[in-house]
Amino acid sequence: MNFINESLPDLIRSISFLSKKTFLTIQDRNQILKEIADEIRKRSLKIINISHEDYKHAQEQGVEYSLLQRLKLDENKIENCIQGLENLIQLDDPIGQIEFIKELDDDLILTKKTYPMGVIGVILEARPDAFIQIIGIGIKTNNFMIVKPGTEAQDTCSYLMAIVHQILLKKHVPIEMLTLLHGRSQIKLLLKEDKYIDLIIPRGSKQLVQYIQSNTNIPVMGHADGVCHIYVDGIDDIQQSLKMIIDSKIQYPAACNAVETVLINQSIASDFLPPLITQLECFGVKIYADHLVSESLDRDFTSPESWSIEYSDLSISLKVVNGLDEAIDHINNYSSHHTDSIITHDFKKAEKFMLQVDSANVYHNCSTRFADGYRYGFGAEVGISTNKLFPRGPVSIDGLTTYKYHVVGKLHIVDDYVKGVKKFIHSQ
């Protein structure tokens, strides 16, 4: 569906109204997800061809490397998206869950129960695979989603949304449950609707996230950077440690959970740096390093412009540190609080690292690329949040629910408790 700018505020009001009136059963939601997964599998070749045209056009326009990598939709990515939708079906219903029941007094019962968030605006750059995940999570959580994909992926996302709308129409579900926006100018209008939109999720560059955070009163969930670290404290298995670092960097360098800085304990630097440099250069990784790395190898590496840089490509920063405390301090100072990992055989050091590093995901002896809702078994994710407040880390169905407190009594009044006629029992 296409909407002109003048109609967008009215449309958002209508979406907000419908979101309060539309409650699908878990069976209906799961059936919709199943039919979407089946249709995507059936039409995968067509989707890939449309995505390929989007990719070619973006390439001709000189779109940067990291964005092109995210834009690419191939058989593996589509299959992962389908598996994500199928995994969502297997998850328990996140809506209507009773988190606790408490008896405040005789016949005065407090219940905490989960509900959909309501209306969620999602603004993403060239991520057709993320688009599919977002659609799936929106349906599973009974939320209404207004999605603005990047112009680079517009044709692919339009085709995918057409598939979804056909299924919603067949099920007599309002197609406004999932609404696609097209024009960039609509983002400004979207961000003004704080009365009707409950949450904004940006997925894209630091500039995009910061722009959204600065131009709306709607709560914003997400992260601006993916500056991830690996600290190599001690090594039992050099080859496996190298494989872990290589996986974190080159498995998908444009991902926000790819490692950008490797810190090496000076006690192992002379043994570990030579094979590490060799491995990185074998894979075409451009190396930036501090003076201690250069001195250790008697090579003149260029220093990084900043230790807070997110390369999102085949580049990496290396630094020698004087042990665990300096590594933790460096990470907390320069990290984006996304995902940071330690390589060590010392469990006490690993425990200290995971306790003191202030990031949403902290790892011991595993690749930073595991920071993902699908890999965590959440089915899919709408993004990764580095917020301290809930939700944090990969955000899936639980992160897009809210709750209400239900209190049911028999014409109870507070005055009885103020005067001591009655007393709370607060039992569970």
Quick structural gist:
The chain is of the alpha/beta class and 428 residues long. It contains 15 helices and 15 strands.
What distance lies between the first and last C-alpha atoms, to the nearest angstrom?
Answer: 49 Å
Mean pLDDT: 93
- Alpha carbon gyration radius: 24 Å
Count, helices: 15
Order of strands, widest sheet: 9-10-8-7-11-12
- Residues in helices, as a percent range: 40-55%
Beta content comes to 15-25%
- Secondary structure tally: strands: 15
Biggest sheet, open or closed, and with what strands and sense?
6 strands, parallel
- Helix and strand content put the structural class at alpha/beta
- C-alpha geometry: globular
Order of helix and strand elements from N to C terminus: HHHHHEEEHEHEHEHEHEHEHEHEHEEEEH
**Low-confidence stretches at least 5 residues in length (pLDDT < 50)?**
none
Describe the structure.
The chain is of the alpha/beta class and 428 residues long. The strands form four sheets. It has a six-stranded parallel sheet with strand order 9-10-8-7-11-12, sandwiched between helices. Strands 5-4-3-6 form a four-stranded parallel sheet, sandwiched between helices. The chain has a three-stranded antiparallel sheet with strand order 1-2-15, with no helix packed on it. It contains 15 helices and 15 strands. The model has no long low-confidence stretch (mean pLDDT 93).
